[in-house]
Design goal:
Elements lengths: L28 E5 L3 H16 L4 E5 L5 H7 L4 E6 H14 L2 E6 L5 E7 L1 H5 L6 H6 L13 E5 L8 H7 L4 E5 L3 H13 L6 E5 L3 H4 L2 E3 L33 E6 L2 H4 L1 H9 L4 H12 L5 H11 L1 H4 L5
Parallel strand pairs: 1-2, 6-7
Antiparallel strand pairs: 3-10, 4-10, 5-8, 5-9
This protein binds trimethylamine oxide.
Trimethylamine oxide binds next to loops.
Length: about 325
């Protein structure tokens, strides 16, 4: 359904014209879908809010790094979860090229990094320090990794640079990429039975923190430029010799032309703002309650009217 504009008629010429009501294009707003649950549910939540606003919406599954180029070119209209750790570099590169705009931060504070379930600390009490982890590398050895420890990193498209970090810091670990987020949860679940020490990629906000108490490994503190300038970080000759930002942003981004083509939807997008607890809940509806993302979004919207209704004009 499209917004109505105020029609000018001869009869009202005595009055100043009303400001034209925003008229959004009837073309669908294209929302990208990636490979972790909060992003998929949030995309459906905002998609359903935009439908409520009168917009047409279409979802496309896209690579979580390449999407910034797609937004910049207008092939995709927006992105709801720009995680500083995983996507900051791709987002900044697209901003520099032009065509993409920063639509502001969610209240959520994010962290993405090497993580272990708390039982791991019983076997390696010097944790969360990364050097202590490295001393314990043999505890994490598997047939696949020989005498080195195994670190299960995220799917490759999250570009966590685990291998570069291991090399930059001279760690006795082998980095294995999970095929999917589900493989990370399966790994933690399997280790839980006999409290086997493991270290895997994880993030917050996420459902996992309510299921498995755990901690992030403390690497050398992130400094701007650690991914670009070898001089930044403890190893003067290497990139990625720092942890990810411990208080990372979560941003919204949009195609530069969105505001003009869908002004009303853009105003809604500017209002969209989720907290850590809300995002963890979105992931839980799928990863624990096993809902389909679309259904999870409907349930979330039903339960949180007070949060989002004021975002719609
Ligand atoms: C981008 N992610 C939240 C999965 O780290």
């Amino acid at each position: 359904m499209r917004k109505m504009t105020t029609a000018m008629t001869a009869g009202v010429l005595a009055f100043a014209p009303f400001a034209a009501l925003a008229e959004d294009s009837g073309d669908p707003i294209v929302i990208p879908i990636h490979n972790w649950s909060s992003q998929i549910v949030m995309s459906n939540v905002v998609g359903q809010i935009l439908e409520e606003n009168g917009n047409a919406v279409e979802y496309v599954t896209t690579d979580s790094q390449a999407v910034y180029e797609s937004v910049r070119l207008g092939d995709v209209t927006l992105e709801l979860e720009v995680w500083e750790g995983a996507f900051g570099a791709s987002f900044r590169a697209a901003l520099e090229k032009g065509g993409i705009v920063d639509v502001g931060d969610h209240d959520a504070v994010t962290r993405e990094d090497w993580w272990y379930p708390m039982w791991t600390k019983d076997a390696c009490p010097g944790l969360p320090d990364w050097e202590a982890l490295n001393e314990c590398a043999a505890l994490f050895a598997t047939a696949e990794t020989g005498d080195k420890g195994r670190y299960l990193d995220g799917p490759v498209d999250w570009l966590k640079h685990g291998q570069e970090r291991v090399e930059a810091l001279g760690m006795d670990f082998v980095v294995v990429n999970a095929g999917s987020a589900a493989a990370l949860w399966a790994e933690i679940g399997a280790a839980e039975a006999d409290k086997r020490p493991i270290v895997v990629f994880n993030w917050t906000p996420n459902f996992a923190e309510a299921v498995w108490p755990g901690e992030f490994v403390e690497f050398p503190v992130w400094e701007d430029g650690c991914d670009k300038d070898p001089a930044v970080g403890p190893n003067p000759d290497a990139l990625f010799d720092c942890g990810n930002p411990a208080n990372g942003y979560l941003k919204k981004a949009a195609w530069e032309g969105m505001e003009e083509k869908w002004p009303s939807a853009y105003a809604v997008l500017e209002n969209v703002n989720f907290t850590n607890a809300q995002i963890a809940e979105m992931a839980k509806l799928v990863d624990i309650d096993e809902m389909e993302p679309e259904e999870a979004a409907t349930v979330w919207l039903e339960d949180n009217k007070d949060v989002w209704e004021s975002w719609v004009n």
